[in-house]
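User: Can you recover a sequence for this backbone? Please restate the input before giving your answer.

Assistant: Of course. Working from this structure:
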């Protein structure tokens, strides 16, 4: 398990802290519906155009040379597609870890919510939840099972702890039945959860039929 607490995590800025406090207060008083907040986040992070991360994954699946560059230097490979993270994009150093037949990777930020916004949009609510941040390190298989993902016992499971210096992206396995798919078709298949490591990329319906 790849897990290291010896790094500095980002401390939310003043405006971010005030926004979180206001959201918590409104939720507590019943003036804000969590489902409505989640819907806005989902719209921003999932449905407003394809996620940059999915573009990176699709390119890696279709271009072996790009896949090698991505695994060697994720930041530079993402920049090739015009995806550049700064303090706002939170991607100063991107490390890409690849899922395969013998290993499954999952990403967490144990002390706060460090996350590659430039690639994945807004972090999901569960990613910031203290329960996920603490439990996925101690009992990753059980946590993934709660997401509906059963990782076989014979497959190694690695947990990567994001920090202010390093962001992680999971390169999921390409699903069966996608031979001949264009990059655009592949992009549409890749969910954000698969790039965090709590889900797999499903076969397209026509392949599963």
């Amino acid at each position: 398990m790849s897990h290291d607490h010896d790094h500095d995590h980002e401390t939310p800025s003043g405006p971010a802290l005030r926004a979180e406090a206001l959201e918590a207060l409104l939720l507590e008083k019943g003036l804000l519906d969590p489902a409505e907040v989640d819907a806005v986040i989902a719209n921003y992070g999932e449905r407003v155009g394809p996620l940059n991360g999915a573009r990176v994954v699709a390119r890696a699946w279709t271009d072996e040379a790009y896949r090698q560059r991505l695994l060697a230097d994720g930041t530079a490979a993402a920049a090739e597609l015009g995806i550049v993270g700064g303090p706002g994009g939170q991607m100063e150093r991107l490390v890409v870890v690849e899922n395969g037949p013998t290993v499954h990777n999952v990403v967490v930020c144990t002390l706060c919510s460090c996350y590659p916004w430039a690639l994945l949009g807004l972090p999901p609510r569960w990613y910031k939840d203290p329960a996920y941040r603490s439990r996925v390190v101690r009992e990753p298989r059980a946590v993934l099972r709660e997401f509906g993902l059963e990782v076989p016992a014979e497959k190694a499971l690695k947990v990567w702890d994001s920090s202010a210096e390093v962001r992680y992206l999971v390169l999921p396995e390409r699903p069966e039945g996608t031979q001949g798919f264009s990059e655009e078709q592949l992009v549409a298949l890749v969910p954000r959860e698969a790039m965090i490591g709590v889900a797999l990329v499903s076969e397209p319906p026509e392949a599963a039929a």
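That completes the design. The beta strands are 94-98, 103-108, 156-161, 167-171.
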